[in-house]
C-alpha cells in the first residue's frame, strides 16, 4: 500500500507543477493582446488544462486501486479468521464424541 500512496503523491506533485504553469499562462493571457503570442498562450492554456484534468483522473484511479487493495487485504484477513474459526469448531466437534472417554482417562489417572 505504501507504493500506491507513493504513486498518488507523485501524481499530486505533477498536478501541482502543472497548476503553477497554468496560473502563469492565465496571467499572460490577462495581459494586452499580442497577435500570435496570445493565440499560442491559449493553446498552451488548453493543453495545460487537459493535462491537469488527466492527472486528476489518474489520481482518482490510483485512489480507487488503493481502496481495492485495502478491501482485498481486509477480505483476506476475514477469510483467514473464518477458516481458523472453522478449524477450531471442527476440532471441538471431533472431541465431543470422545469427551466422556477423556473424562474417564482423567478419573483413572487421579
What is the strand tally? Answer: 0
User: What is the strand content?
Assistant: under 5%
Rg value: 32 Å
Structural class: mainly alpha
Shape: rod-shaped
Your description of this structure?
The protein is 90% helix and 0% strand. It has helices at 2-30, 37-95, 99-109. It has one domain. The chain is mostly helical and 110 residues long. The mean pLDDT is 81. The chain contains 3 helices and no strands. The longest helix has 59 residues, at 37-95. 2% of the residues are buried. α1 packs antiparallel against α2. The chain is rod-shaped and about 100 Å long.
Kindly summarize this structure in a few lines.
With 110 residues, this protein is mainly α. 90% of the residues lie in helices and 0% in strands.
Spell out the key features of this protein.
mainly alpha; 90% helix; 110 residues
List the helices and strands and how they pair.
Elements lengths: L1 H29 L6 H59 L3 H11 L1
Helix pairs in contact: 1-2
Amino acid at each position: 500500500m505504501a507504493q500506491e500512496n507513493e504513486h498518488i503523491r507523485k501524481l499530486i506533485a505533477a498536478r501541482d507543477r502543472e497548476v503553477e504553469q497554468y496560473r502563469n499562462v492565465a496571467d499572460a493571457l490577462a495581459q494586452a493582446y499580442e497577435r500570435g503570442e496570445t493565440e499560442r498562450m491559449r493553446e498552451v492554456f488548453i493543453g495545460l488544462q487537459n493535462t491537469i484534468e488527466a492527472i486528476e483522473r489518474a489520481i482518482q484511479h490510483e485512489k480507487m486501486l488503493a481502496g481495492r487493495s485495502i478491501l482485498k487485504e481486509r477480505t483476506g484477513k476475514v477469510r483467514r479468521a473464518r477458516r481458523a474459526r472453522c478449524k477450531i469448531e471442527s476440532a471441538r466437534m471431533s472431541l465431543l464424541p470422545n469427551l466422556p472417554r477423556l473424562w474417564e482417562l482423567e478419573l483413572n489417572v487421579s
